[in-house]
């Protein structure tokens, strides 16, 4: 039997990948597009977060925008905690060294915080690192929806967050950043 005379369910030429297309019963079939699109029907991160109207997509974009601002705030907060520990005077955890600039370097000493593994400062930084790592990967997955509106909301949220918090940072490059 040739493929032109086979039933559709047996014909390899008529196979549809149902793992990628979801009809949610509201006329909104979502798929996981691998190209940028501006569609309203969008599944975001998990099955329960589905937009079917422009208003729902706008609300989701606002939430993602705010998440971008909070993410930048978290990065600043971690650095501020570290700076506060570095500025502590008389603290045995602070060690001044010249090896990062060389013996003749212009910075004449850099404060380096040396936490012990079980110190409260290191435990707090570890917990905040877990939160930052998780948030970073979640925001990356939002961008990977390839929805233009959600991507714009995320980039603008990160930009506004950097505007609010970045001017206070003591470093320009964040070596703990996971997805940039």
Overview of this protein structure:
The chain has 180 residues and is mainly alpha-helical. It is 42% helix and 10% strand. It has 3 helices and 6 strands, in the order ββββαββαα. It has helices at 54-87, 120-143, 148-165, and strands at residues 21-23, 29-31, 42-43, 50-51, 94-97, 110-113. The strands form 3 sheets. It has a two-stranded antiparallel ribbon with strand order 1-2. The protein has a two-stranded antiparallel sheet with strand order 3-4. The chain has a two-stranded antiparallel sheet with strand order 5-6. A hairpin with a 5-residue loop joins strand 1 (21-23) and strand 2 (29-31). Helix 1 (54-87) packs antiparallel against helix 2 and helix 1 runs parallel beside helix 3. The chain is elongated, with a radius of gyration of 24 Å. The relative contact order is 0.16. Residues 15-20 and 89-100 have low confidence and may be disordered.
- Percent range of helical residues: 40-55%
Number of helices: 3
CA-based gyration radius: 24 Å
The largest sheet, given as strand count, sense and whether it forms a barrel, is:
2 strands, antiparallel
What order do the strands of the largest sheet run in, or round the barrel if closed?
1-2
Oligomer: single chain
Q: Report the average pLDDT across residues.
A: 78
Low-confidence stretches: 15-20, 89-100
Class derived from helix and strand content: mainly alpha
> Beta-sheet strand percentage?
5-15%
Task: Write the topology of this structure.
Layout: E1 21-23, E2 29-31, E3 42-43, E4 50-51, H1 54-87, E5 94-97, E6 110-113, H2 120-143, H3 148-165
Antiparallel strand pairs: 1-2, 3-4, 5-6
Helix pairs in contact: 1-2, 1-3
């Amino acid at each position: 039997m040739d493929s032109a005379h086979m039933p559709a369910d047996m014909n390899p030429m008529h196979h549809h990948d149902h793992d990628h297309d979801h009809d949610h019963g509201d006329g909104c079939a979502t798929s996981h597009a691998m190209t940028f699109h501006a569609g309203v029907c969008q599944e975001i991160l998990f099955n329960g977060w589905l937009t079917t109207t422009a208003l729902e997509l706008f609300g989701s974009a606002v939430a993602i925008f705010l998440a971008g601002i909070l993410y930048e705030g978290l990065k600043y907060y971690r650095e501020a905690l570290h700076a506060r520990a570095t500025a502590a005077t008389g603290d045995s955890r602070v060690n001044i060294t010249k090896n990062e600039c060389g013996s003749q370097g212009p910075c004449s000493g850099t404060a380096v915080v040396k936490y012990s593994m079980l110190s409260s400062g290191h435990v707090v930084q570890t917990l905040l690192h877990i939160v930052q790592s998780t948030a970073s990967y979640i925001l990356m997955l939002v961008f990977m929806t390839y929805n233009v509106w959600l991507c714009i909301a995320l980039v603008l949220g990160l930009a506004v967050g950097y505007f609010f918090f970045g001017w206070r940072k003591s470093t320009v490059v964040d070596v703990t950043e996971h997805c940039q």
